[in-house]
Design goal:
Elements lengths: L6 H7 L4 E7 L3 H9 L4 E5 L7 H11 L2 H7 L7 E5 L9 H10 L3 E4 L5 H11 L3 E2 L5 E2 L7 H7 L4 H7 L12 E6 L2 H5 L1 H5 L6 E4 L1 H7 L11 H17 L2 E6 L13 H10 L3 E4 L10
Length: 288
Amino acid sequence: MTQRRNKLIELAAQGRPAFGGAVHAGDISRARVLGDSTFDFVMVDLEHEGFDMPRLGDTLQWLVSRRRMARTGDLYPSPTPIVRLPHTLGERTTWIASQALDYGALGIIMPYTEHAEDVEHMVRAVRYPRPGSDGRIVGERRVWPKLAARYWGCADYDEYLDMADLWPLVDHGEIALIAMVATPTALRNIEEIASVPGLTGVLFGAKHAWSALGRRGPIDLDHPDLVDFRSSVLSACQKAGIVAGTSLSGKPPTGGAGVVDLPFLTRRIDDGFGFFLTQGGGRPDVGR
């Protein structure tokens, strides 16, 4: 079997937890650090800083670590770049997702997802046209993946086009589509959101939810409102057969790298969460 490009998908398919950090597009120094780290994936953020597509391309290149390749022998070294879009999903600004994928991203995070129909729209936007199960053509992504095919190490366009599909909708797909939820509207619609075919997983944005629920001050991940939201995300994902994720901020960043509240993390893994966005400096040692 061909080696997976997407580490988040590889681990999710094995039922193992995946861990990621974050970098703003254009922050080359941090991209180098994360490239050498033990993270499985990296969220490249276009939402808050650095909305610049050429700088996004630079950031993706600096995440590639030949040092890590030499150490691990992995032709497709982690961390896998997953790009967080700058707009709320309801705005349906699909050209940004298309350009991020054309630069080589192996996934998309859709911030402030609130409605299933918006996810359905994005599923169509990021898939290349191909016959569906009923023979009709599905997918609307335009074909010009010259940068992405090189970044993925593909011999030609056809090899890239075959792999550039959504998992688990397509078993050999290498693109992860993640709905990030944080608002009361998303909570009300969580089961419908999670059930959209083509979605890889749902990420509970704890910090965003803390703000969206009108809270201020240090975040309390064990607050009943956050516990209810987080549990609803997990339940909806398990029902839909996709992977559930959550952000981790149980302890504040320390010394620039941050730390992870391991007891909190272990409980979430035991609950059934499968991927984590953390403030730590690398993959936590959880023995899994």
